[in-house]
Write a structure and sequence with these properties.
- By secondary structure, this protein is mainly alpha-helical.
- The chain has one domain.
- It has helices spanning 2-19, 33-46, 48-64, 71-89, 102-129, 131-136, 142-170, 181-205, 208-222, 234-242, 245-257, 264-297.
- The chain is globular and about 55 Å long.
Amino acid sequence: MDLLFKKNTLAAEKVHSKDRVSVYTPESALRNPMKLIREMFRDLYSSRELAWRLFVRDVSARYRQSLLGYVWAFLPPIVATCTFVLLNRSGILNVGNLPLPYPAYVMIGTLLWQVFADAINSPIKTVTAAKSMLVKINFPREAILISGMLDVFLNFAIRLILLIAIFIYYGIVPPITAPLAVTGVFAIFCLGIMIGIILTPIGILYTDIGQVLSMVLSFWMLFTPVVYAPPTTGILARLTSLNPVSPLIVTTREWLAIGAASNLFPASVVFLITMVLLFAGWLLYRLAMPILIERMGG
């Protein structure tokens, strides 16, 4: 582990020394927004090598110290699917009319929800884990975010095995719209990352945020049509209609397994707003990190 840290430290120093020289002034970076934006994208590009090294280090360390290894990537959606299938068959949970076998419906919804949950947790988790490195070395902070994003995509790629297995088991033939599901997954991922980046400055200062976020996500899932059909009447229908995750999950699942897109317009609106707020969150992260690093090192 120490050797890996030293390698990543050298990589960070190399990226910093090769690509730029930092000049610190009391003037706010917002006084020259175009320069700030250029620096943001330059650092995003220059951080790719370090991000990959951090990603490989974290994945290697996590699975090397785990008894079950990659099995942990499969367990959350499997446990969630089995739980809701049992509740449905016992008559406790009324899921409405579904266009797919219920286990397949739940598995797809759970996999998509897990992308959202992993994306929200990723920025806070990766930045918190890299505190010691942030204090000691000056390098593009975007590398930490990118390494966490790669981890989210790796987990989703592993879990796709479950999706393929359940499609084969139930004889589900992917419709012609299935390739569009990649766009839906990306939109869900961006929504989660956007929320996670905005919460990161607070999460670094107060560790309670991570625990609160875990409880909020559990509660949030109940108001998202992950394991039931989108309701059309009642309070739950109102809540799901106001839930930004709902149209993204519904649309992606329909593209993937049904061939329709009943929530395409609201999903498009959510995606456009997400991209604007994602850039704003990145800007906030960029401006807040020097202050937070100073506090961490104090």
